[in-house]
Amino acid sequence: MTSLGRPALLFVVGRDEPERYEYLLRAFAGDGRVAVILDRRERERRSSRTKQPNDRRRAERRTRENHHELRRLGYALIRLT
């Protein structure tokens, strides 16, 4: 766990990988440094990547790297700080 009491590593598992999700849950059960979740997204929310006029976000929150890992490997490992 981090000093804030939350996990230091996060596995995001693709929704089409239920066996991998169950495996990772068992493998890291009881390890408070690791969290395992299913990807809840069904599709990209925005149809275009252009910035909306009223959008207050400074930058895209999802990294393309994690998105590609999730599609290629069935999971993405994210280090939380």
Describe the fold and architecture.
By secondary structure, the protein is α+β, with helices and mostly antiparallel strands. It has one domain. The protein is 25% helix and 19% strand. The protein is built from 2 helices and 3 strands, in the order E-H-E-H-E. The chain has a 3-stranded mixed β-sheet. It is globular, with a radius of gyration of 15 Å. The mean pLDDT is 80.
Summed up, what is this model?
The chain is of the alpha+beta class. It has helices spanning 18-27, 64-73; strands at 9-13, 34-38, 75-79. The protein has one domain (1-41, 63-81).
Descriptive labels:
25% helix; globular; 81 residues; single chain; 3-stranded mixed β-sheet; 3 strands; alpha+beta
